[in-house]
Amino acid sequence: MDYQYPISQHWSTEEIVDVIRFFQSIEKAYEKGIERSVLMQAYRRFKEIVPGKADEKNICNEFEEVSGYSAYKVVQKMKLASPEEKIRL
């Protein structure tokens, strides 16, 4: 990983850690696969920190630009998956 995660200076340290955990879950979905429940928990926490759709889109697009990983595609696959399914792209 040779990039920085998109973060806001307005977030607390705990929020920054949780947003990074969400993006690490996206990376894991691409690299090895991740349990849907783990990804769902990370996404729900991310949405508590970034509730607005426009902000979510901007941050996720920023992450995709630097990493090449699409959070949108992973989240869409997660939403369509069965509870016990492993998410992998």
UniProtKB/TrEMBL annotation:
Signal peptide span: none
InterPro entries, A to Z: BH2638-like_sf, UPF0223
Residue intervals passing through the bilayer: none
Matching Pfam families: UPF0223
Domain of life the protein comes from: Bacteria
Stated family: Belongs to the UPF0223 family.
HAMAP family, per database record: UPF0223 (MF_01041)
UniProt protein name: UPF0223 protein D5F11_005980
